[in-house]
């Protein structure tokens, strides 16, 4: 039977952990009561009794009456729970008074003081979150009303366009829209009914229907811009024939510029308005871009996502309420058992009357969200609604564990065979090993580094799960499609078993006397197979994960045109540690496209000017992408830290370029440049790793030079991790030490250093996400903030 403390630890919401009942502290207080009630040894009690009173024939009768009085005291109420208003606030707090005198009164009083504090904390947190979700629900209901009204107007306009041939001159949209000064949002103003349906006569029934829809929009506080006077009804102002004193607003569609098309459109529209039209703020633009069906669909998708997130938050609040109720019940039962009293019924009656148990607002709002979602977003299909609102968790299979073990054994066996064959055939000897190292080695190095990165990611997933770091929430992964650590290990072992198997086949065919030009094509075939599996459209081999990975790579490659998410930042940081892999991919592509694997003329790729110039480009690209992400975030958030972060990647680009140049021109000048730029970039990166990414090196922290909130209990692990990160960060020193190696040894050393950088990145990943998780816990952030598409254009 699992102890409740472990069950609570496994089920509580990590981001709200501090708001839960501190069950462990209350258990310690109950233990103090137990120690205070510890009876004296029997011999000591007998001696004290006989010495003071002696023995008596009435002792059995006295014992009977004392037990009867004890029973009556347990049936009577021994505590009284009172409610009172908190000073300077309208919140109620609970206070417990002891009616019955306890022998260990101090410990019991301290226990109930802590219990009252926990009850007040839970109650107030629940009320705050309930109020937040109720406000979010009201906002989403208004957003949905506006969306439905807009869809009705668009449908009405399309019917009018079909019913009259004269309506063909209408510009294709109901609302004229001009981009605001922000490239992320779009404004539109509703023209009057005359300008909406210009170009022909409108049937009276259709016109009256449109007027009803516009009237419904006005009830939601939406005003209109008259196409003739171009005057906007401000909040609390008047204009036109406005006889209603209700404040109005100009409607604004806030569609995030998440794709290159939206970003480019937003920027060009903004530049056009600022440089050519120079419109005044508060006036509608005269651009020809219109709100169309696609924009309404984007708004609908945003509202649907907001409802899903609201439902998820309400579910978490419901879980919070039930777990805390069970915790109160369990701890009071422990107290009753230790104190030999019946305090739990009285206290639990008050707990059940408290707001976090008695309130049903969250449950009713959940039912309302289900009904709304079924009606408006699921075509009255409740099963489809539940797939969105309550996605099924992916079940873990023991077959995955079995295959991980199987492929691990196969990999070890095949690698042993490969090492023996490589030694017997002498492929790494200085005389015969050049062709192998130039053509085959880069391909297998790519797969080896990828497999190592997958293994490190699997270790990250395992540690995040063990420490209850909610990486799915941080990365905004779908729990039903996200990889588990066993899946990552399975992909890694399958990957390496296939690669080492191909390496063994390659050596066997070479030893059998096949033509090198034919045998050396095996690595290229292996690459094509894995690319085909990566883009395979069939729903096999983790298709959701593969396609999500491809979308992330697309977002990174097109930076800064796509909206930057944390998962994009995380993946771009991984690429900065895989520059050797990218350079191996460049070599492999050159060898196979140029046909070098047939002719074995390596000068084509090693000495070509284009190849040497591409080395700079490939070394710069990951840093450039990451710098562009920082620039995009600075434009959106106006956070100066993003510019400082961008400077870190620019300094890394300069250092990488200096090292590449020094490899070609080994003189004192370039040696000094490499030393200065690399040292500056390393210090910059180390500072950012420890202070910004990991949140450590805080001199005012209660944990010396760490941070206040630590996930790992052993502090020495953090100090060792700091030292390890420093050592692995300065691996570039090898490039300027002047060591001379032969070609084979040099390639092996490069692979070893590249592997160390991958290991360092996997080590960095854990602490980076730990710091993000601690930040979410500090903010009690368990639900994603969502943006709504319709808001007041004058709110800016």
UniProtKB/TrEMBL annotation:
The keyword Ligase does not apply. InterPro entries: EXS_C (IPR004342), PHO1 (IPR052486), PHO1_SPX (IPR034092), SPX_dom (IPR004331). It is found in: Endomembrane system. Residues 2-349 form the SPX domain. The chain crosses the membrane at residues 400-421, 441-463, 489-509, 521-542, 669-688, 717-739. Residues 163-202 have a biased composition (Low complexity). One of its GO terms (cellular component) is endomembrane system. Residues 161-210, 226-248 are annotated as: Disordered. Residues 606-796 form the EXS domain. Keywords: Membrane, Phosphate transport, Transmembrane, Transmembrane helix, Transport. It comes from the Eukaryota. It is a multi-pass membrane protein. Its main location: membrane. Pfam families: EXS, SPX. One of its GO terms (biological process) is phosphate ion transport. Belongs to the SYG1 (TC 2.A.94) family. This is Phosphate transporter PHO1. The lineage of its organism: Eukaryota, Viridiplantae, Streptophyta, Embryophyta, Tracheophyta.
């Amino acid at each position: 039977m699992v102890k409740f403390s472990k069950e609570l630890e496994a089920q509580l919401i990590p981001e709200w952990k501090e708001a839960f009942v501190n069950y462990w502290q209350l258990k310690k207080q109950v233990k103090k009561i137990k120690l205070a009630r510890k009876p004296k040894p029997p011999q000591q009690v007998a001696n004290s009794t006989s010495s003071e009173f002696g023995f008596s024939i009435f002792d059995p009768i006295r014992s009977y009456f004392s037990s009867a009085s004890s029973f009556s005291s347990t049936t009577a109420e021994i505590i009284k729970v009172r409610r009172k208003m908190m000073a300077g606030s309208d919140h109620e707090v609970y206070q417990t008074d002891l009616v019955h005198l306890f022998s260990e009164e101090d410990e019991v009083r301290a226990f109930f003081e802590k219990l009252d504090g926990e009850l007040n904390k839970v109650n107030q947190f629940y009320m705050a979150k309930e109020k937040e979700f109720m406000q979010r629900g009201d906002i989403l209901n208004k957003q949905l009303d506006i969306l439905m009204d807009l869809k009705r107007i668009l449908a009405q306009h399309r019917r009018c366009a079909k019913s009259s041939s004269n309506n063909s001159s209408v510009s294709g949209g109901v609302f004229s829209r001009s981009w605001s000064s922000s490239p992320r949002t779009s404004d539109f103003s509703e023209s009057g009914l005359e300008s909406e349906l210009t170009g022909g006569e409108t049937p009276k029934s259709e016109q009256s229907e449109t007027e009803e829809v516009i009237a419904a929009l006005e009830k939601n506080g939406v005003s209109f811009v008259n196409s003739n006077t171009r005057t906007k009804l401000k909040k609390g102002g008047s204009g036109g024939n406005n006889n209603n004193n209700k404040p109005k607003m100009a409607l604004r569609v806030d569609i995030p510029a998440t794709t290159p098309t939206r970003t480019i459109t937003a920027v060009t529209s903004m530049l056009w308005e600022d440089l050519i039209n120079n419109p005044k703020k508060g006036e509608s633009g005269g651009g020809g871009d219109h709100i169309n069906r696609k924009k309404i669909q984007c708004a609908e998708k945003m509202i649907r996502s907001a409802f899903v997130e609201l439902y998820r938050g309400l579910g978490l609040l419901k879980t919070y309420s039930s777990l805390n109720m069970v915790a109160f019940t369990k701890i009071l039962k422990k107290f009753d058992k230790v104190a030999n009293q019946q305090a739990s019924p009285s206290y639990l009656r008050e707990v059940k009357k408290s707001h976090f148990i008695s309130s049903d607002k969250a449950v009713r709002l959940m039912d309302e969200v289900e009904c709304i979602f079924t009606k408006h977003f699921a075509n009255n299909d409740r099963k489809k609604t539940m797939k969105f609102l309550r996605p099924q968790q992916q079940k873990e299979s023991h077959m995955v564990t079995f295959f991980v073990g199987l492929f691990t054994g196969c990999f070890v066996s095949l690698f042993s065979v490969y090492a023996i064959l490589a030694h017997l055939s002498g492929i790494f000897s200085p005389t015969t090993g050049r062709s192998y190292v130039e053509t085959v080695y880069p391909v297998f190095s790519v797969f080896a580094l990828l497999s190592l990165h997958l293994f490190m990611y699997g270790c990250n997933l395992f540690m995040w799960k063990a420490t209850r770091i909610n990486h799915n929430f941080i990365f905004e992964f779908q729990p039903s499609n996200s990889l588990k650590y066993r899946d990552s290990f399975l992909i890694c072992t399958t990957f390496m078993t296939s690669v080492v198997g191909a390496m063994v086949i390659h050596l066997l065919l070479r030893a059998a006397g096949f033509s090198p030009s034919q045998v050396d094509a095996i690595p290229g075939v292996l690459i094509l197979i894995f690319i085909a599996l990566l883009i395979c459209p069939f729903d096999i081999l983790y298709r959701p994960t593969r396609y999500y990975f491809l979308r992330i790579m697309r977002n990174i490659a097109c930076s800064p045109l796509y909206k930057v998410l944390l998962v994009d930042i995380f993946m771009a940081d991984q690429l900065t540690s895989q520059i050797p892999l990218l350079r191996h991919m460049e070599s492999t592509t050159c060898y196979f496209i140029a046909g070098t694997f047939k002719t074995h003329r390596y000068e084509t790729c090693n000495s070509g000017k284009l190849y040497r110039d591409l080395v700079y480009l490939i070394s710069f690209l990951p840093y450039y992408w990451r710098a562009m992400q920082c620039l995009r975030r600075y434009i959106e958030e106006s956070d100066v830290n993003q510019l400082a972060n961008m400077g870190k990647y620019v300094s890394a680009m300069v250092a990488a370029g200096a090292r590449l140049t020094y490899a070609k021109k080994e003189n004192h000048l370039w040696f000094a440049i490499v030393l200065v730029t690399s040292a500056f970039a390393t210090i910059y990166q180390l500072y950012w790793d420890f202070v910004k990414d990991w949140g450590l090196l805080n001199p005012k922290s209660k944990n010396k030079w760490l941070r206040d909130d630590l996930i790992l209990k052993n502090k020495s692990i953090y100090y060792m991790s700091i030292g390890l990160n420093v050592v692995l960060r300065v691996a570039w020193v090898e490039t300027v030490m002047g060591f001379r190696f032969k070609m084979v040894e040099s390639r092996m050393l490069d692979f070893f250093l590249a592997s160390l950088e991958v290991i360092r990145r996997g080590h960095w990943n854990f602490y980076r996400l730990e710091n993000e998780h601690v930040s979410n816990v500090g903010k009690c952030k368990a639900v994603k903030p969502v943006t709504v598409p319709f808001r007041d254009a004058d709110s800016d």
